[in-house]
Write a structure and sequence with these properties.
The chain is α/β, with parallel strands linked by helices. Helix content is 27%, strand content 25%. It is built from 11 helices and 19 strands. It has helices spanning 14-25, 42-45, 57-71, 73-76, 97-109, 119-125, 148-161, 205-209, 283-296, 346-359, 373-377; strands spanning 7-10, 30-33, 49-50, 88-92, 115-117, 136-140, 144-145, 165-167, 172-178, 181-187, 190-193, 196-199, 219-229, 239-242, 247-252, 256-261, 304-315, 322-325, 332-336. The strands form 4 sheets. An 8-stranded mixed β-sheet has the order 5-6-4-14-15-16-13-17, sandwiched between helices. A 6-stranded mixed β-sheet has the order 8-2-1-12-19-18. A 3-stranded antiparallel β-sheet has the order 9-10-11, with no helix packed on it. The longest helix is centred in the N-terminal third of the chain and has 15 residues, at 57-71. The structure holds flavin-adenine dinucleotide (FAD). Flavin-adenine dinucleotide (FAD) is lined by residues 10-16, 33-36, 40-43, 45-49, 171-172, 200-204, 208, 223, 225, 260, 311-313, 336, 338, 340-344.
């Protein structure tokens, strides 16, 4: 058994890669263990929208911190996440406006570049938009999207440059615990020891912690993305999300757009086995989203379908991550449960987890809000929206 590793990180998605990088950067000996390849799971299938609109202060600050890293990625991390600053519009119905105003004020108070715009101003910013049913919108000029596989790969590469070992094609079968302390992992390629283990395996995380009797409240829920080709005259658009439409829309290279649902009912699409589910988009979803898109962007009546895919959200009961130490086992940590909005927060999660692992728990740290204990003590993270990816 190898014992010279400080920390084993299980999972090569955005969280595992970002945590491995941040630990290696701070001088720890790290091994990243991934059953397939970097970004093989939901990270690689993510719509990777990077917006700042959250209704609680901690996640808003995490989104802002992460945005600054995406904007300065080559300096802070190294490499290219292919970040596109398109701008982001969140459109509200009349009944959402008061809450939207309060959220925008909260976001401005933490330094986020966002403002409330009228439907007419939204139309000026986004000329192809129909403002039917829109009472106001939040506009974030600095938001956009990135390439999720390129981002996770850049983090993993930089972790390796800083001395981390990447064990790809290696599946963790169980956690090893001795006298109340984690000692390593058993994999299909042998046993690896470490002083600490971080489970960052997305929807597979509960399967890993169950090997030592810890039940994480994370559901694997199928989320579909439909892709459409824009007509030639629809050259560019921002990232858009709307409460009336209950969809998000973001541009994609090749004159395409990606469309997904923001309905809280997404949590009901639970799959029993994250290794075996329908990865294709359903025909009726393609048809339904195309109607909603054409209502919001009438020019899309001349758009065409270009397929799509399905992947998994790892959803917790309050749609927020589980970050931090797991109870009862010294040295065991979790960074999972991004609940369909975790890509954009990955850069901040990596920094926060590295800080926690190196310096230990601090009473006033932001990360405490995401501790697993909240589900035992009944203190779910509260946002101002009904629970969903909007947060
Ligand atoms: C279709 C879709 C669209 C999304 N859109 C957005 C968006 O627009 N904006 C946003 O912010 N977020 C979005 N999300 C959410 C975001 O992508 C996820 O929260 C984030 O990518 C999760 O990253 P992760 O590192 O926690 O986990 P994952 O990406 O799930 O990575 C976990 C890794 O662990 C590996 N693994 C699993 N079990 C084992 C094992 N036993 N041994 C070794 N390795 C193992 C897996 O192979 C996988 O690579 C979207 C998600 C989906 C599915």
């Amino acid at each position: 058994m190898t014992t010279s590793t400080d920390v084993i990180v299980v999972g090569g998605g955005i969280n595992g890669a970002s945590i491995a990088f941040n630990l290696a950067k701070r001088g720890l000996k790290v091994a990243l263990i991934e059953k397939d390849f970097i970004a093989a799971g939901p990270t690689g299938r993510s719509s990777a929208i990077i917006r700042q609109h959250y209704s609680n202060e901690v996640t808003a600050r995490m989104a802002l911190r992460s945005l600054r890293i995406f904007q300065n990625f080559d300096d802070v991390v190294g490499g290219d996440p292919d970040f596109h600053q398109t701008g982001f519009l969140l459109a509200a119905r009349p009944e959402d406006v008061e809450q939207l105003k309060a959220n925008v004020a909260l976001q401005q108070s933490v330094g986020i570049n966002t403002r409330l715009v009228s439907p007419e101003e939204a139309k000026e910013l986004e000329p192809h938009l129909s403002i039917e049913g829109i009472a106001a919108a939040a506009y974030e000029p600095e938001s956009g999207y990135a390439d999720p596989a390129a981002t996770a790969t850049a983090y993993a590469r930089r972790a390796r440059d800083l001395g981390a070992t990447l064990r790809l094609g290696t599946r963790v079968l169980s956690l090893q615990v001795e006298k109340g302390r984690v000692t390593g992992v058993v994999t299909d390629k042998g046993t690896f020891g470490a002083g600490a283990v971080v489970v960052a395996a997305g929807p597979w995380s509960p399967l890993i912690t169950e090997t030592i009797g810890i039940r994480l409240p994370i559901k694997a829920s199928r989320h579909q993305v439909a892709v459409y080709r824009r007509p030639a005259e629809f050259e560019r658009h921002m990232v858009y999300a709307g409460f009336a439409d209950e969809i998000y829309i973001r541009p994609e290279t090749g004159h395409l757009m990606l469309v997904g649902s923001i309905e809280p009912e997404e949590a009901e699409n639970e799959v029993p086995n994250p290794d075996n589910f329908n990865e294709r988009v359903d025909f009726d979803v393609v048809a339904e989203f195309s109607e909603r898109v054409a209502r919001r962007y009438p020019v899309m009546e001349r758009g065409t379908s270009a397929g799509g895919w399905a992947s998994l959200y790892d959803i917790t009961p309050d749609w927020h991550h589980i970050l931090g130490a797991l109870p009862g086992v010294e040295g065991l940590y979790c960074a999972a449960g991004g609940s369909g909005h975790g890509f954009k927060l990955g850069p901040a999660v990596g920094e926060m987890m590295a800080d926690l692992i190196i310096n230990g728990e601090k009473p006033d740290a932001d990360i405490n809000m995401f501790n697993f204990r909240r589900f035992v003590e009944g203190e779910s993270v509260s946002g101002k929206y009904e629970y969903s990816i909007v947060g």
